[in-house]
What we know:
heterotrimer, B: mainly alpha, C: mainly alpha, Helix Hairpins, flat, Multicomponent Na+:H+ antiporter subunit G (chain A), transmembrane (chain A), sodium:proton antiporter activity (chain A)
Amino acid sequence: MNWLNLFSAVCLLGGAASCLFGAIGLLTFPDVAARLQAATKPQTLGLILVLIGSAVRLDFRDASGLILVGLFQALTAPVLAQLVGRAAYRTGSVREETLDTDDLAKRIERERDRTL
Amino acid sequence: MADQARERRSTRRRGEHVVSRKHPFGRLVRRIPLLVWLVLVWLLLWGTYDPGTVFFGVLVGVLVIASFPAPPIATDIRLRPLRLVQLMISLAWDLVVSTARVSWHAVVQGPRARAAIVSVTLVTDSDHLMAMVANAVSLAPGNFVLQLDRGNRICYVYALGCHADPSARVRGEVLAWERRVVRAVGTAEQVRMVERGYRGEVD
Amino acid sequence: MGVVFSVTFGMLCVAGLLSLVRLLRGRGTLDRIVALDVFITLIVAATCVGMGLNRDGSNIALAAAFALLAFIGSVSAARLVERGESHR
C-alpha cells in the first residue's frame, strides 16, 4: 500500500510539474506555433500522469473512466495542434525570423511563379 | 492471393474508399468495429460491466450509427499486436522525452527559440497510414505536421529547436515514425517498401 | 500524502494563472484559443486530482465531457479564424 502511495505521489507531482512547464512555455515562446508545442505535449503528458496518479487511488470501477479521459486527450491533442498550426501559418502568425528553413514557403512561391 | 488483389485495387484507386451498395449485410458487418468501440466507451463511462449495461450500450450504439450514418471505410490495415504495443511504448517514451526537451527550450531559450518547416516525402501511399504517421509525428518531440500534400505524399513538418541541419534530422525522425507505424498496421507489401526505403537511407 | 496533494494543486494553480496571463495578453485569437485549451486541460487535471484526493469517482463523466468539449470548441474556433482571415 505504501509503494502504491509513493507511485501515486510521483505521478501526481510529475504530471503537475509537466503542466507547469507547459504553461511557462506558453508564456515565453515567441510565436503561436512554438507556443502550441508547449501547450500540446507537456499538457498531454501532464494530464496522463495525473490521471494515472489518481487512478491508482480509486477502485477499478471509477478508474476505467479515467482511461477514457486520457485516451481522448492523447487522440485530440495532435489534431488540435495540426489545425491551429495550419491556421497560424495561413494567417501569417508564424514569425519568419524564428525559422531556419521554410520548405512550405518555398513551395508556395514556386507555384505562384508557375501560375504567373 | 487475396491480399495481392486487394493491394492492386487499392493502388489503382489511390486510396479512394469503396462503398459496397450491393451487399447491405456487408455494410452492417463493416460497422461492427465502430459498434464495439461505442459500446466500450459506454461501458467505460458507466463503469459497470453487467449484461444490462451491455444491452443498453448496444442499443444506444445501433441508434447512434443509424441516426448519424458515417461512410463505411474499407481499410487495408493489418494489425500486428506485438508491433502495435511496441509503437505505443515508443510513443509514450517519446512523449516523455519531448516534454523534457520542450520544457528545457521554454526555460532556457524562451523568446529566442528557433524553428524550421521541413518537407518530408513519405515512402508509402495510403490515406490511413499517412494520417497515423501525421498523428504520431504530432505527438512526438517538438514537431507537428503543418500541412499535408496527399497527392504527392508530402508532410510539411514544423520542428522546434535549433540544430545544425534541421532538415536531415526531421526527415530521419518522420521516416522512422513511418517505419514504426507501417510495421504495426501496414500490409506486407508496405512493410517491404518501408524496409527498402530505410536501407536506401542508410547506404 | 496531504502535502503531495497540496503541492500538486499549487503547481496546477500556478500553471492556470500563467495560461490566463497568455489568454489576457493574447496578441492574436489563435494565442487565446491555445491558452484557453490549456486552461481547460488544467481544469480537467485538477478535477481528476480532486477525485484521487477524495477517493470518489463520481465526476469522471464531467471530466470526459470537458475534455471532448474543449477539443470541439478549439477546433471550431481555429477553423473560424482561418476562414475569417483568408477573406482579407
